[in-house]
Amino acid sequence: MNSIKSFLLTFLTVAVIGSLMAMTMKKSSVNASRIKITNKSNWDIDHIYFSPIDEADWGDDILGSDAILEPGESIEVMVDCADWDVKFVAEDDAECIVENLEICEIQGLWTIDDIGCD
Length: 118
Description:
By secondary structure, this protein is mainly beta. It has one domain (4-113): Immunoglobulin-like (Sandwich), CATH 2.60.40. Helices cover 7% and strands 44% of the residues. The chain contains one helix and seven strands. The protein has one helix at residues 4-11; strands spanning 13-20, 33-39, 45-52, 74-79, 83-90, 95-102, 107-113. The strands form two sheets. It has a four-stranded mixed β-sheet, with no helix packed on it. A three-stranded antiparallel β-sheet has the order 3-5-6. The relative contact order is 0.37.
């Protein structure tokens, strides 16, 4: 497991800590809630995308076009209460997709670490 890609594909995880409340990409939504995503992995995260589970296309990169989430850094995002798929893309373009997150049923913090991609 010398390559970042194979390591990340095997061991990147999104651990949902606590419980996430209502999520929205629009700050003005009545169902909006803040989620703090912290990168505790050994890799830069270059992109984070959300997509409703019934849509084939990913939304905009919540990090923006030039930003990265380096190890130890955090970002807070707003999302609507819904069922979401989330895609994390590491510095070498390795992807971790977490499907069918019921955001309203969980709230708190998300931690990206080196344990697994579930």
